[in-house]
User: What shape does this take?
Amino acid sequence: MAAMGWLTPRRRSATARSVLAGEAAAEAARKSSQQLELERETAERAEPAEPEFPVVGDAEAAAFFDLDNTVMQGAAIFHFGRGLYKRKFFQRRELARFAWQQAWFRLAGVEDPEHMQDARDSALSIVKGHRVSELMSIGEEIYDEYMADRIWPGTRALAQAHLDAGQKVWLVTAAPVETATIIARRLGLTGALGTVAESVDGVYTGKLVGEPLHGPAKAEAVRALAAAEGLDLNRCAAYSDSHNDIPMLSLVGHPYAINPDTKLRKHAKAREWRLRDYRTGRKAAKVGIPAAAGVGALAGGTAAAVALHRRRR
Assistant: This one.
């Protein structure tokens, strides 16, 4: 066994030099720890923590959310049109128009005024003569079929943060107010501002009251609601994906660009607005191209829309 002694570390008594080395290491560790703590405190003083937002219990604050491509993927009016077609409210030629408009909306990633107006005109002609109560009931079913799975979880969480802080949360959209109200209720939001279609004795006339709630009209709606609710717009937040909503975003003290189009992204960065992008893939700078996972499906849908459009012509 003595021959194996070389495998066992020798016990050595501490020398004056080893004691000195140990004490020096301990003192250096203590000083470096103190220095790190001092640096952290200095950094905290130089960059004060961002105040909590949304502010809990602030009754004069609220949040305003655009709907299409901000809260929900795609345009609500197109999903609504799909549901009405399924229930035989209109023929295949109108479906081709809806398919074409939806394909354009997804490819371009922006709200083209001409296409959106065409979609609203189509919807108004389709619902003309139907009872409001009938469309509301059908709208509940359409939400479950086509819209529920298209809510952006990230935006939904932002809305919930405002609700948890005790603030009211409103949808603000060019979609029909009935559709917007259904979506708001399903998400547990306060309510919705939307385009109002004229009705007489509970029956749609096929006309609008005023104009679609789009662009500057949204800002006016938010301004009017804030006045009625006693809100301080400087303490409110607004969320949108579109440069068309810059007037609404500019009204509030806390504007957010959500899944922004190119123009809004540029505008938001120039003004240091907060940005959030919940899309699975970043869109190209000039033309909105979906994430790679969805390109094949979208290409097929677009081709079908083009074919139907040409056949119609």
Notes: The beta strands are 62-65, 168-176, 191-195, 197-200, 203-208, 237-240, 254-258, 274-276. Residues 125 and 248 are 29 Å apart (CA to CA). Residues 282-313 have pLDDT under 50 and may be disordered. The radius of gyration is 29 Å.
